[in-house]
Amino acid sequence: QLRFFGIGTLLDGRHDQSVRKVVLGAGLGEKGAAFPDASWEFHWVRGPLTAQKFGLPANLAVGDPALLWPELQATTVKNQAGPIGLIPHYQTWDSFDWPAVAARAGMIAINPRQSPQAVLAQMRSCSRILTESLHGAICADAMGIEWAPCVLAQLTRFKLKDRRPALRPVAAASAHDIAQVASALASYGTCATNFKCSPPARLEWQRQRMLGICRNFAARYQLRFTP
Questions:
Q1: Of the chain's two ends, which shows fewer C-beta atoms within 10 Å, N or C?
Q2: Does residue 89 sit in helix, strand or coil?
Q3: Ranges 1-15, 40-54, 92-106, 167-181: which has the least confidence
Q4: What is the Cα–Cα distance from 171 to 92, expressed in whole angstroms?
Q5: pTM assigned to the model
Q6: What totals of helices (H) and strands (E) does the chain contain, helices first?
Q7: At what angle do helices 134-143 and 116-124 cross, to 10 degrees?
Q8: Distances (CA, A) of 37 to 16, 18, 22, 105
Q9: What pLDDT score does 96 carry?
Q10: Helix, strand or coil for residue 181?
Q11: Residue 121 and residue 188: Cα distance in Å, rounded?
């Protein structure tokens, strides 16, 4: 019996050691790293932190397999006139009135709980992306849309010396709170140096490495592989 782990923050300590686990691209779990026993078969992992925690060679940190999703490989023409898209983490979405905050900051709030196609359609209408969600960053990068990280999960005090505005809720938000948060986000979003995007050649190199690993995996297990 094999269990396959691809896209996701999945590699934690909750897994049955009696089941053989095959990893092609998954990342470190939110509950910490699983014990790297003989039941794990690593072909590649999402990033260097995952590789380090599992004691894997650095060259196995190839990237998130979401890069292979055909929707992310469609050519995206950057909407220079579009607004900045604000993407909270899916667990943060209900904690605050992000559409109101985004509107006040001159942005649009993108709900990560929508269908993937709906999220991507909204992202393509944006000139830049400000994201708390990891996959918001991955999708923006894959589509060639400049993005910047932010922390939205908590709200009251602002780390003025930090390039990421920290928002930490300890009580129900007031109109004054919304104004403060919107002001901080607007200020952060107007600084072009906060935003970045990977070169297309680098993304294509990652995709080709992933496809090569998938091809080798399929050959090993005598599976049909269609890229």
A1: N
A2: coil
A3: 167-181
A4: 15
A5: 0.82
A6: 7, 9
A7: 60
A8: 11, 10, 12, 49
A9: 83
A10: helix
A11: 24
